[in-house]
Write a sequence for this structure.
């Protein structure tokens, strides 16, 4: 089944879930953003003259609110206009309608931080943002948002402690040939199954009680790549380990945010 068929099936499931559950309903949200960019004078190598681009990004999200299972689908439509042969256009700017997210959320019976904690597991295609978003995030400025397919576990407690664990693969965006990008042609995105991203990220709230509001984080992220018949990769294999100390800004006190990471491989 292609992506369009999967999305239609998901919408049918969401509608059925809303109709059959006494205390459930479907929430629908969306966003339409337009941006015009112009450049007077070229800074890119081997470039000349100016440049311009008109960009549109449309998002529509539908999600059930039932517990312990929730289903969600989000469509993304990113288009560009006014570019010419000298515009460095790519599928980071243009990605006509496709499924950005298609997931199931499950409330897991795991009290990882004690009786007052709760744990959620998300399966499927999804965007991922964790804490400071310096290691992995759902980008907001880019015209095309990246997504991943896999599993993301989140556990937290009212005090503010958080634990994240994930194992995902990137979703490759199509098309990538210049003619299709210029014409905003739709093409189904595909998972890159031989590129694996995994990680564990832990946040401890109020790490040092004598310094009010100071929290700490520890994290470890990894990337493993292998070539496949459809995708050639740089064949990277590395680990990124690090920590963060921070105190959010409040009126009348100093704030702090220090994050250190070391990558090897």
């Amino acid at each position: 089944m292609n992506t369009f068929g999967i999305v239609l099936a998901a919408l049918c499931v969401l509608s059925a879930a809303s109709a059959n559950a006494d205390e459930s309903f479907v929430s629908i949200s969306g966003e339409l953003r337009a941006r015009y960019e112009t450049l007077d004078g070229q800074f890119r190598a081997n470039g000349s003259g100016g440049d311009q681009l008109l960009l549109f990004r449309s998002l529509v999200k539908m999600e059930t609110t039932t517990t312990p299972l929730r289903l969600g689908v989000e469509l993304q439509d990113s288009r560009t206009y006014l570019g010419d042969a000298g515009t460095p256009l790519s599928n980071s700017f243009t990605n006509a309608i496709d499924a950005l997210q298609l997931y199931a959320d499950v409330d897991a019976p795991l009290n990882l931080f004690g009786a007052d904690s709760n744990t959620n597991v998300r399966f499927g295609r999804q965007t991922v943002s964790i804490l400071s978003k310096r290691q992995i995030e759902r980008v907001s400025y880019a015209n095309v948002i990246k997504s991943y397919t896999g599993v993301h576990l989140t556990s937290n407690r009212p005090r503010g402690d958080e634990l994240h664990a994930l194992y995902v693969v990137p979703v490759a965006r199509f098309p990538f040939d210049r003619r299709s990008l210029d014409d905003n042609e739709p093409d189904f995105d595909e998972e890159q199954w031989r590129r694996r991203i995994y990680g564990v990220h832990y946040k401890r709230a109020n790490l040092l009680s004598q310094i009010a509001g100071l929290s700490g984080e520890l994290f470890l992220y990894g990337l493993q790549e292998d070539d496949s018949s459809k995708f050639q990769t740089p064949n990277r294999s590395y680990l990124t380990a690090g920590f963060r100390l921070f105190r959010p800004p409040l009126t009348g006190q100093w704030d702090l945010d220090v994050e250190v990471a070391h990558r090897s491989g």
